[in-house]
Amino acid sequence: MGAHTDLLHHGHIGPPWRQFLAGTGIVILAGLGLYYAISSWHHGEISAGLMALGFFVGTALIYAFGYFRCLPDVLGGVAFDVGRNLRQRWSDFALLSTFIGLLIINAAYIRAIWQNFSYVELTRAVAFLVICSWILPASVVASEMYLGWTMPGVEIPRGRDWRARVRQGVRTWGNWMVKLVGSRRALAIGGVLALLSLILAVDAEIFGPNYTGYQIITGREAWPTVTGLDTPRLAVLLAGGYRTVYELGLLVAVFALGGAVLGRWGDTLRRNRILAVLAGTIALLEITNVAVCLGLQVCEVGKWALALWVPTWVIPVAIWLVRAPGNRGTWDHTRLAVMVFYLPIFLLGFAFLVVFAYFGAGFGAFIVGMLLVWWGLVQSGQEVTQKTGLE
């Protein structure tokens, strides 16, 4: 009886090893950030030190806030805010974290534009910054919609303090853009953006010679994120793998366009779960690659990039797939734990994508395009499910 009462008031209490692993990882991230920042500052590299501090310590703070303050029950801990359900607490955490992240991203790149004003094409730089400031809130609102389809619950009003106003502002901005795009427009726009990478420069100046996506699929060039590896055999292996991933992404984009423009004849494509899984996997792989591999190179600590990147996207995806067939309570906690894990990676990914897309528009177009295709397919599948339920 006591255990049942505790469950009602505090939530599920699970094995403490999950919280121990999360806490250990947070401490390691914070320690690495301080080490690289102090080391860089000691050598007079102020900017590199600040970036390393933001990359590691900023990520650690978001994880600490998510796993130990807002959603401790997803790792088996005790929830502090028992008046709000899991979905509402995820929204509170994600919206506030995204707002703070956007402030930092915009401040950093406005400063960079100001310092390099003579060399920057202002229209293009501002356009990429605005796109980033749209995609991130829209992604959070999309996650709210996704959870709302499968985790119903009564919305409990929050107070009107500054945090509530900030969350509502971010939600309003992201929700407006999500509704403006819609499922079919997301498929059409995403498909077009991904295919445009065939003729737009995916790599220019910052990585090396200027080339397009077409040169990648013909085998004359490699995907830009694998061109700087010091190990020749590994570079060849990854170049081949990424070319295959890129070609697969273009194929998914073609099917997405078909689903968007064929009307009722495209329903089969729009509700296809395999296409949705492929689009999501490709988008996730690319964003984690930008966040970890390219981010660490910018922070001048790129020697550990590949070793960190692989588990960053492989392990959470594996956990997601393995735990999906479990009971409802376990599945809800698992997917929210994975979503908390990926939130700072999305923030980092788009923070670095702003500058990389400035030099290679096709690179950014493909990643944003696959994200839109992913969301369009997920939303289309839900629309079909709702329609079938009504009939």
What can you see in these coordinates?
There is one protein chain. The chain has 391 residues and is mostly helical. It folds into two domains: 82 residues; 308 residues, no CATH class. It is built from 13 helices and two strands. Strands 1-2 form a two-stranded antiparallel sheet. Strand 1 and strand 2 form a beta hairpin. Helix 8 packs across helix 10. The protein starts with a helix and ends with a helix. The N terminus is likely disordered.
Feature tags:
391 residues, 2 domains, mainly alpha
Strand content: under 5%
Largest sheet: 2 strands, antiparallel
Rg of Cα set:
21 Å
Q: What separation lies between the terminal Cα atoms?
A: 44 Å
Lateral strand order in the biggest sheet = 1-2
